[in-house]
Amino acid sequence: MVKYRDILRLHAQNVSQRGIASSCSTSRNTIREVLKRAQEKNISWPFESSWTDHDLQELLFPEKHASSDFRRKPDCEWIHKELARPGVNLALLWDEYALTCRSENAIPYSYRQFCRFYHTYARKTKATMRIKRKPGELLEVDWAGQTMTVNDRLTGEEVPVYIFVAALPCSQYAYVEGCLSMETSQWVAAHVRAFHFFGGTPRIIVPDNLKTGVTKTSRYEPVIHAVYQEMAEHYQTTVIPARVRHPKDKPSAESTVGHISTWIIASLRNQTFFSLQELNEAIQEKRTAFNTKLFQKKKGSRYTAFLEEEQFALVPLPAFPYEIATWKKATVQYDYHILVDHMYYSVPYDYMKCQVDVRVTSTIVEVFYHHFRIASHKKQTGPTGQVVTIMDHMPSDHKKYMTFDANYVLEWGQKAGPSSYTTVQRILASYQVEKQALKACLGLIKLADTYSIDRVENACQRVLMYTPRPTLKSVQTILKTGSDKRPPEAPIEKESKQSTTNPYGFTRGADYYGGKTT
């Protein structure tokens, strides 16, 4: 409350505004406004002693005592829900609240009072406050510094187990599990199980700059591991690593790691485990107790805060979980195949001698060139050295060679004509070995390329008139001599020589030796 009595009294004693401000612990702007209002209301010292500061405020600033019908209290439940949405803050909500009040002839509270109403409401009725962290926005992940162990049943050797920790900053709800290594496959698999534990995915994942997740560290443009980035895209989230040596960028994970070290790792220190599954079952029990433990300074627990404040804001899970894949590089050979895990897979022949990226899962092998998928195969199992070839990946000449069989030449014969089809059938039937017959049929097809299909059809028709067993040679002869151009019914004229009788018997004369008679 402003000390109105003291301000007017000191002003009547000719004390400067600076001195009044120092004495009453009030700003000079407030003192200036009080003196201005007192002059307008014709109120000066001395006045009735029964007047209090509250009475003077009602006289000088009646708008501050407007009835509840004109001053509208903000809807804190609406504010709490709106703060969960991306980009929304208290300043924006107060501006909208003030515009609504003025449009309805109501007096809004100041921004300071607006924030005070909400903070009071959030402290009393909500387990968390949405000021610094929005629900469903972040998931902070990390490896715990301490490790646990699993004993080998046969040798008794202690195998280290690394503890993966994921925490949602808004509700502090945590996921914990043990992994046998800190490799990328284990790191990504732990994320997938964490997403299914939460029942959704956040908008941003904040890890450390560990090598399993970040290929190249950078303050502005870090390079994320290909498998890690692919997993994030599958779940419609993004990875933004914390700055190097800045653990405060993910304080919830760091804090949760400390709690986990005490309430899970330390609490299980006297137990012996012989398998990772057995260890994770014990971790799950401790994790449930940790998440349901009541807060000390506010109502509820991490679990209730997650259900009430954060679960609804998570992005829904995709229809199928992410399948972990490994990425490799390969060079396409001259036979347009690549070697992956001792198996050969075809690639379009246009990419010969190009370096490609290969994505390998348990069931599929995908080939990418400059981030564009150019081939996909079902992963082969069994003996090594198997070759998988797709016909569309082959050059046209190779396709013809692969598809050249009896059906191919018969189909060609049907298209060429009935005589050609009959000729092909009889050539195929005349050889004991199909490859020999196919070679002869290939020669017949080549004749059609050299002459024409019509001429080959006519030649086959003429050959079938002379013999029931046509050969490639007979068709070639007819085409070379041009006999196929003559009508089939026209007989071939032969020059007849007049026979002369020789009275002297068999005598060789000029006709025999090519000379001329005189």
Report on this model:
- The chain has helices at residues 4-12, 17-24, 28-40, 53-60, 76-82, 90-103, 111-125, 184-198, 226-234, 251-265, 276-292, 302-310, 396-403, 406-416, 418-430, 434-450, 453-466, 472-481, 510-513; strands at residues 138-151, 158-167, 174-179, 204-206, 214-216, 223-224, 238-239, 326-331, 337-340, 343-346, 355-360, 364-369, 372-378, 387-388.
- With 518 residues, it is an alpha+beta fold.
- The protein has 5 domains: 4-63, no CATH class; 76-125, no CATH class; 138-313, Nucleotidyltransferase, domain 5, CATH 3.30.420.10; 326-394, no CATH class; 404-485, no CATH class.
- Strand 9 (337-340) and strand 10 form a beta hairpin.
- The longest helix has 17 residues, at 276-292.
The largest sheet is: 5 strands, mixed
CATH topology of the largest domain: Nucleotidyltransferase, domain 5
The CATH homologous superfamily name of the largest domain equals Ribonuclease H-like superfamily/Ribonuclease H
> Mean pLDDT, nearest integer?
83
SS-based class: alpha+beta
Report the uncertain regions.
none
What's the number of structural domains?
A: 5
Number of strands: 14
State Rg: 47 Å
Short characterization:
The protein is of the alpha+beta class. The chain is 42% helix and 14% strand. It is elongated and about 185 Å long.
SSE layout and pairing:
Blueprint (H helix, E strand, L loop, with lengths): L3 H9 L4 H8 L3 H13 L12 H8 L15 H7 L7 H14 L7 H15 L12 E14 L6 E10 L6 E6 L4 H15 L5 E3 L7 E3 L6 E2 L1 H9 L3 E2 L11 H15 L10 H17 L9 H9 L15 E6 L5 E4 L2 E4 L8 E6 L3 E6 L2 E7 L8 E2 L7 H8 L2 H11 L1 H13 L3 H17 L2 H14 L5 H10 L28 H4 L5
Parallel strand pairs: 1-4, 4-7, 10-14
Antiparallel strand pairs: 1-2, 2-3, 5-6, 8-11, 9-10, 11-12, 12-13
Helix pairs in contact: 1-2, 1-3, 5-7, 10-11, 14-15, 15-16, 15-17, 16-17, 17-18
